[in-house]
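Technical appendix A lists one of the benchmark inputs used to test multi-chain prediction within the project. The record comprises two sequence entries:
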Amino acid sequence: MAEDNGEQKRKGLLGKFKDDAEGLKKYVSEKGKEQLEGLKEPEKTQLYRSIFRFKHDETARNRALSVLSNVFFHLHPAKVNRDATKYSYTWGMGGITFYLFIVLTFTGVLLMYYYHPSKVQAFRDILYLENDVPFGKLLRNMHRWAAHLMIIAVWLHMFRVFLTGSYKKPREFNWCVGVLLMVLTMLLSFTGYLLPDDQLGFWAVTVGTNMARATPLLGHEGPFGPQLGMTPYNDVRFALLGGSIVDANALLRAYIWHCIAIPLIASIFMALHFWRVRKDGGISGPAPVMLESEIKDEKGPRPVIMKPSGMQ
Amino acid sequence: MWWDWHQIWEVASAPDNVPIVALLFFIPFYCWLAFREAKKNDELIAKLEADPAAAKTAHRKTQPYEKGWDREVHTWPYLMRVELLAAILVTVLLMVWSLTLNAPLEEPSNPNVTMNPAKAPWYFLGLQEMLVYFDPWIAGVVMPTIIIVGLMAIPYIDENPLGNGYYTYRQRKFSIWTFLLGFIGLWVLMIVIGTFIRGPGWMWFWPTQTWDASRVDFAVNRNLDDVLRIDGAWMAHLMPGSWKPFSGLIARGIFGIFPVTFYFLASGYFMNWLANRTAFSRKIYKRMSLLQTVTMLMLLALMLSLPLKILLRLVFRIHYVWETPWFSV
């Protein structure tokens, strides 16, 4: 021991540090190698497992769980009809519509950072966005073209659903929800049209809202409107515009409808729509064809509207 | 001026009109795709109907299937990779579109300078075009409401259980023709007219005709009662003196009820006849309740009133069929 002590003394403080450093180096390189080795299988890390509960491998169980245990993916069922992934059947328009809604929400929120819904500022904000904001022009272009594309996608989605007869039993109600969503999509686009406050939007909205004057009973130029006391200052058009002309109040109202109210309403209907797709038995087909001889005779017509129970 | 190719280019290349140009390609493409699938299914249906024994064991789909194949596949990865691919393609398309074409921005809004033509956004141009043929309360309020309600009523009217979940033409001829007429014939076509044909003053300009803002249209539109010379002169003889000045008004108001009623009866009868043409459609028709039948005939009559009114207006130059002091049709 004495010899040891002597040796250590001879090494001195510097030597001791050297030894420690040597040991640390060995420790770090060994452990590090081990851990780097471990990174080759990231799905075994605690971090990964805390986020994704299941292994990413090709077992049927984990393929199903990776969909079911993920909040974003669980809109899907674990399994689908093997032919339902074919583009020639689905056209993918419903999914594209939803994706475009997400794109529009994303670009729309970014646009909101640069926009004031006031007569003084609105048009200047667009000029500023187009000329000074980095990628501002791209942002606005993407928002506008995505909106146009979404309308086309919605129409084509409806066209496909009609041609495949997918609105038939048991999906009648979901078709109705879809029709409302289509109307909401067009209203979203229409309310956004006014926001740049340029001649194009102004006159388009003027033409559009002028029709509201002619609403039967509720418009001051509509059938029986004047007889019911409608004037330009209290009819349904006044309610839409917040005034008798397209001006500051109309801009603010369009802005709130466009950015808050309609997206909220549409989101609720979308949740309903997607939920019902699942509850009504998933995507409608491609289903096995049915033959005319297989139509079951119903005992009398099936009433669309039933009598409330208790009524004679 | 005719053969003004620049005019066509100007309209077709306006950035906001690109979606309509795109629709002109999309709709024929998807019609072709749908009818290709429908043809395949219809051939399969014909085959199975001819051979009931085979129908019991057949796979009944045109998609390939062999024994031992799973009827379902995992969403992950088979469906989700398609969705990812679609999302990427749409993003690329959107990026390219946004980099090459700028969203339009006109001058600051100015209530004193009217745009000519002042057009609604393209997806509402069908309604704006309808304003030529109907008063705003019909074109702008009643018709859109009927379109929405009518669309929602489809699943509750259509009593045909066939064609649920696959493309077919054979089994659903009537409903497919109705939808094609409504969607392509009336909605899309009216948008195309509103975009490419209607120029300054909402006048009709044929393709290659220059949009001349100073053009004056001398067309004279008359009401049906003018054409038939209903002026109330005969009725005035029967009226007390103080009523005589209003005899024309009253005569016209009463007269209009007849063509409108006649139209609904005649078109209802015609549709009823059309929906009973084949043994199959008679079978389906029998399944419908009275409420369903009446709703269907009513909606079809309202839908057909648009092309009829277009014909009356553009060919016979008739403005109103029924004119009253409160509303006109």
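Chain B touches chain A through 110 residues (CB under 8 Å). The longest strand of chain B covers residues 72-74. Comparable benchmark entries are summarised in Table A2.
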